[in-house]
Every structure is written in C-alpha cells, then in structure tokens.
Amino acid sequence: MNDIKKAIETLQAATANCTTGDRHLVVLDRGWVFAGNLSQDEHGVFTINNCKNVRKWSSGGFGGLALSAKNSGAVLDDCAPVKFEASARIFVSPISESWDE
Question: Full-prediction pTM beyond 0.85?
Fold first, then answer.
C-alpha cells in the first residue's frame, strides 16, 4: 500500500506544474509580451482574455518567465483583452494556471 501511495505522490508532484487549459505567454512583434487565455475566432483573429502585459522581468531569461512570473521578477500590468492577427505573433508558450501567483 505504501508503494501505491508513494507512486501517487510522485505523479502528483511531477504533474503539479504542467500546463493545462488555454493560458499562454504570447510574444508579439515590436516587443510586446502578454499572458492570458488565448483563443482564435473563425476569421483567424486571436484574442487574449484575462490579459496581463508583461512590462519587464529581471531574471531567468524567457524560460524562467515561462515557468513563473514571480520567480522571474516580472512586472505585470492588467489590461483589456488584446486582439491580434496571426502575422503579429512571434511565438506562443503555454503557461500553468498558477503562473502569476
């Protein structure tokens, strides 16, 4: 029984920071970086809801930012939903639901 309990705890720890859902870091042209719930409509226009502008971060490079806003020293500004065309997108990185906590 202890082996099963240990295996479950190991699995829970390994998946605790896995990304699920539609939260993403979105890097757009001209240096804009946003975090939020990303969707695309039937016309190909993207929208980021529950949006935060990542004004700056101080450590860990982009990889560190993708793991945690807090640990990377990110400064986040709430903003209205952002809409953009695919041509403005540089790249997108999934983030966890607890990314900004």
Answer: no
